[in-house]
Amino acid sequence: MSQLQPPHLPALESLHPDTRLVHAGTLRSQFGETSEALFLTQGHVYPSAEECEARFTGDSPGFIYARFSNPTVAMFEERMAAMEGAEAARATATGMAAVTAALLSQLKAGDHVVASRALFGSCRYVIEELLPRFGVPSTLVDGTNLDEWRAAVRPETRVFFLESPSNPTLEVIDIKAVADIAHAAGAALVVDNVFATPLWQKPLALGADCVVYSATKHIDGQGRCLGGVILASEDFIQKHVHTFLRQTGPALSPFNAWVLLKALETLPLRIERQTRTAVAVADALAGLPKIERLIYAGRPDHPQAAIIARQMTGGSTLVAFDVAGGKAGAFRFMNALRLVRISNNLGDAKSLITHPATTTHQRFTPEQRAAMGVSEGLVRLSVGLEHPDDLVGDLKQALAQV
Ligand SMILES: *Cc1c(COP(=O)(O)O)cnc(C)c1O
Prior knowledge:
The chain is of the alpha/beta class.
C-alpha cells in the first residue's frame, strides 16, 4: 500500500452496484495503469531492516507475503466487499475452502452445527462427515421448515449453515427468519449465496453473519479458474477468519484474483442477461408433456414464491426440471442436446446441464437423494449467454427425442 494509491472516487455508498464493480478496490502503481495490475509475486522486499520490522509489527502498512496479503488479491476482496455491502472480505483458493474456513474458524470440539439438508454435495461432506470427526456434531434439517431449525438447537449450537436457492432443487429458505432463530440461540448464520449471485440476494442485509461464494461460478462466469470469498463484518473477520486463513493457507493465487477482479466488471451484464434468458427458458418448458416438474425461483408456481418476493430481486440463472422416464429419459435428453453442454459446473457463459443423481449427488443413497428432492430424472440447467431462442430450440428438439 505504501507505493499503491486508490484513485479518487465519489463515496462508495453514493454509487450503484454496477459502478462499484468497475471501480471499487482499485489500487494504482506509479505507472498509472488503466487496468488493475497483476502482482504475480509470492512476497515483497523492504528498503531496510527497520521497514521490514515495522511491516511485521503492523506500524507500517503494506504487503508481506501472498499467503495472507497481495495487492491483486486485496483489490478483488475490496471490490467484492463493495458489491456485497460487507465491511470485510477474504479471498480463498476455492469455494469449498471458503465454506470450510468460514465453519472451522468459528468452531471447536463440543460445539454443534445445524444446517439445511439440501446442500452442495461437498458442503454436506464437511458438515456431515468432517466436522463430527473433530468433535463437532451436526443436525440436518428441512431448511424450509422453521420448526425443524428451532427443534434442532442445543445449548452448544454455535453455527447455522444454509444454501438458498439450494443445489440442485432450488429450494428457497427464509433467511431472515432463520437468522432470528440462530441469533436467539446465540449462534451465527453462514449463507452460501452462490445460486442467488451477489446481484439478486443480500444475506447480510437479511441478518446473516457471514456470506460465502464459490467465485468459480458466476463471478468468473467464463470457466477459467477456481476461487472463493468470505464476506462479513470487520469484527467477524478479525475474530474468526483472518488468523485462520493466514496460518492455514488456503490462499487465492494472484493470477486467479486478477481474472476474477476483471470478471466483476461485467458481472451485472452477464447475470441480468442470463437471468432474463432463464426466465424465458423456464416459461417455454413449463407444462410441456415430457417435463414432469419444473422449478425456477422466478416463477409464481415456485413453492416458496412468497419468500422469494421478499428476499430476492431476481430469480437466478438456474432452472431444474424432471425429464419423463427417470434416469434413462434424462440421459437420452442430455445426449440429444447440441448447444447445451453436459458438465458439472454452473454460472458459465456457456449453458451447461447436470444430472445430479449420478454426479454431484452420486455418493448419497437413493433414500437420501429422495429426501433432498434429487429424483432420477432431475436435471439442473445453468443458463448461459446464448440467445434465448437458440437455447429453447435446442432444449425442445432434445425433449422430442425422449
Ligand atoms: C460450486 C459450489 C461450491 C464449491 O465451490 P468450488 O469453487 O468448486 O470449491 C460450494 N457451494 C455451492 C452452492 C456451489 O455451487
